Amino acid sequence: MRVEAVRGMPDILPEETPLWQYVEAEVREAFAIYGYREIRTPIVERAELFSRGVGEATDIVHKEMYVFPDKKGQLLALRPEATASVVRAYIEHGLHARGGVAKLYYLGPMFRYEKPQKGRKRQFHQYGVEAIGSLDPALDAEVIDLAWYIMERLGLRREGLFLRLNSIGCPEDRPRYREALREHFVPHRERLCPDCQRRLEENPLRILDCKVPTCQEIARDAPRSVDYLCEGCRAHFRELLGYLDALGLAYEMDPKLVRGLDYYTRTVFELASRDLGAQDALLGGGRYDGLVEALGGPPTPGVGFAGGLERLILVLGVREPPDKCFRLIHGPDVYLLPVGEGEKIEALRILAQLRRAGIPSDMDYAGRSLRKRLQAAARSGARCALFLGEEELSRGEVKARDLASGEEEYVPVGELVDYLKRRG
Ligand SMILES: [Zn+2]
Ligand SMILES: [Zn+2]
Questions:
Q1: Are both 238 and 287 inside the same structural domain?
Q2: Which ligand places an atom closest to the C-alpha of 219?
Q3: CA 193–ligand 2 middle distance (angstroms)
Q4: Residue 354: domain span
Q5: Could you tell me if residue 210 is inside a domain?
């Protein structure tokens, strides 16, 4: 019986990986230019990190997290997102003690048990940044600017994208806002979906991002969080808007935008594509000023975002793949053709030599006829074929054929590297 991949956990095939590598390289470079350094946290964490960090009542933790006991019964989870992990590492390694703002980025697979659909898989890949250690709204603006910069680098038009923005205030503002939401939703309790009836008790903010149409309809004229901000949060948001204006970054105020994670405070945002339909967010983020403390660190503010590589590739895939992408597809430049079995040892030796000299080269291992192998050489895209015959080798030479022009010449084995490099 054939064993197949787990549903929602797709392979990324060789013809797709060049686009992935291209996007990953661009994203990494953008992060580096903005002063962020990579952190690599493990894929498996204690489940409690996410129930405490992301929130027990969130869909991510409540419904979508892969949780399992290890052999000692310790409850572990496949990470559903990376912010909680990065903050855990930040605390665990005392990065706060180094002072200043820790600017960290990550890139890697995350796991959520969701209904698999286009651009949304159970194993998916996120790129993201966390800037931990400052309340300055200029840092929020920097993070948003970085999100735009990534899209610019990838050649996505500004007109095709838009930024949704909101402020959900601080924990002091939250009780009043939550109460206002509860008052708004309670009269409609019976019409809310079963999840939202639960959310009404646990955290009515979560109703605002419910995807069920009836819930969305009831949420349409719900109270707006920006009307429940304290003076400090209002000033913070005002300053951020001033910085965004100064940077020429447009935004659309979205009072429904609360993001599906409990740790957010103040600024929340999403960068969305007009080409993606209903699930249009390319990346999302915001401030999490209470998260470090909630996970056992000293009170430390932070801001960041995360985006899905699958979505980005979906949006990029509709265009011509950029030239840079093709440079990553490394076919052989040189193809070796040992004429008989006896020449195979010499072929392997030459192959090892060429490769160590940095010349992409290959030969046929399928045991086919010389004619078939020559076809394989042509198909491989190599520019040059090297024929290794008994007679030539006895003279210490091989026959080189230019696969485009058909021109042939004899080259001493000892001069092959120079010869091939000279041909360029
Ligand atoms: Zn506040
Ligand atoms: Zn609902």
A1: yes
A2: 2
A3: 4
A4: 330-423
A5: no
